[in-house]
């Protein structure tokens, strides 16, 4: 038998009411992903100036995600902007990483895929942005904090 809190969470997820939770996960995911990207790009000595872009763009989702937890308005304005920028930057990074592999001697080989820039890592950053975009279209769970206007979807 599940406790009442767990039943409430499951009911919220089943009914598409987990905007606040997904906004919080977006903030945490952006922070962790930024750290990982920084360490990877620092190991490569930030050899290309474009390597700084995700270090600047991804952290924007941290305050946007936190704000979206507390404010319905932030969930509809700031979070989708930050999330869309992250998705775009992840797609750009995927292109740049594939280009980096192709430019290595021998081109796209198994060895170059294993030792070159990680070609799928930027897509993982895009997933964080995608979570933020998904949060913006979901219904809000729980009671809205004071000051938030009620919305028609309950």
Structure, explained:
With about 150 residues, this protein is mainly alpha-helical. It has one domain. Helices cover about 70% and strands about 0% of the residues. The protein has helices at about 5-15, 20-45, 55, 60-70, 70-75, 80-105, 110-115, 120-135. Helix 2 packs antiparallel against helix 4 and helix 2 packs antiparallel against helix 8 (about 120-135). The protein is elongated and about 60 Å long. It starts with a helix and ends in a 17-residue tail after the last helix. About 25% of the residues are buried. The mean pLDDT is about 90. Keywords: Membrane, Transmembrane, Transmembrane helix.
* CA-CA gap between termini: 28 Å
- Give the amount of beta strand, in percent: under 5%
Assign a percent range to the helix content: 55-70%
Number of domains: 1
The tally of helices reads: 8
Radius of gyration over C-alpha positions, nearest whole angstrom: 19 Å
Q: Roughly what is the average pLDDT, rounded to an integer? A: 89
Give the overall shape: elongated
**What structural category do the secondary elements indicate?**
mainly alpha
Instruction: Tell me the major beta sheet.
Output: none
Transmembrane segments: 21-39, 51-71, 78-98, 118-138
Keywords: Membrane, Transmembrane, Transmembrane helix
Topology, pairings included?
Blueprint: H1 4-14, H2 19-43, H3 53-57, H4 61-70, H5 72-76, H6 78-103, H7 110-115, H8 121-137
Helix pairs in contact: 2-4, 2-8, 4-6, 6-8
Transmembrane segments: 21-39, 51-71, 78-98, 118-138
Keywords: Membrane, Transmembrane, Transmembrane helix
């Amino acid at each position: 038998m599940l406790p009442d809190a767990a039943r409430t969470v499951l009911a919220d997820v089943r009914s598409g009411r987990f905007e606040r939770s997904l906004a919080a996960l977006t903030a945490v995911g952006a922070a962790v992903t930024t750290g990982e990207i920084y360490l990877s790009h620092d190991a490569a000595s930030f050899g290309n100036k474009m390597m700084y872009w995700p270090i600047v763009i991804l952290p924007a989702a941290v305050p946007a995600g936190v704000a979206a937890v507390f404010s319905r308005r932030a969930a509809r304005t700031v979070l989708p902007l930050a999330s869309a920028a992250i998705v775009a930057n992840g797609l750009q990074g995927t292109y740049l990483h594939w280009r980096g592999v192709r430019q290595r001697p021998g081109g796209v080989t198994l060895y170059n895929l294993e030792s070159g820039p990680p070609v799928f890592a930027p897509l993982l950053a895009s997933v964080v942005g995608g979570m933020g975009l998904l949060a913006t279209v979901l219904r809000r769970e729980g009671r809205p904090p004071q000051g938030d206007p009620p919305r028609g979807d309950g």
